[in-house]
Amino acid sequence: MRQGASPHHDRATTRVHELNLFRRYFDLVAAGRKSIEVRVRYPHLEDLEAGHLIRFRIKDTEETCAVRVTRVARYDDFEALLDGEGPANINPTASREQQLANIRSIYPPEKEALGALAIGIELVES
User: Fold this and answer.
1) What is the pTM assigned to this prediction?
2) Which of 34, 39, 98, 101 is at a distance of 20 to 30 A from 109, taking alpha carbons?
3) In Å, how far are 41, 50, 77, 111 from 103, measured between CA atoms?
4) Element (H or E) spanning 1, and its range?
5) Do 121 and 69 contact (CB within 8 A), yes or no?
6) Rounded distance, CA 4 to CA 76, Å?
């Protein structure tokens, strides 16, 4: 590989990830009120990085909104993530305890054991 060449980037094509989102979180993202998306460290998200786009969709609908990834932080579990990122950035309408319960109702312990991702997001004008 020639010097200065990046093995990961073709600047002409921005990587787009398609992810489902529950209505209550989708509405916060679409309103620009949610700056951190929480996900489990699934293998298909390992290459997620700043500059990528995410198209969120409400499951079984055509409603979508696009965000640009500003950064990706990795945590061992959801508690560490909430403490590291600040609950208000994840969901300004719920307390830390409510958020932890909500996240764990979505992801069971065996999923949390994979680790957690805090994905910094900013709304892309459509």
Assistant:
1) 0.87
2) 34
3) 14, 23, 11, 11
4) none
5) yes
6) 33
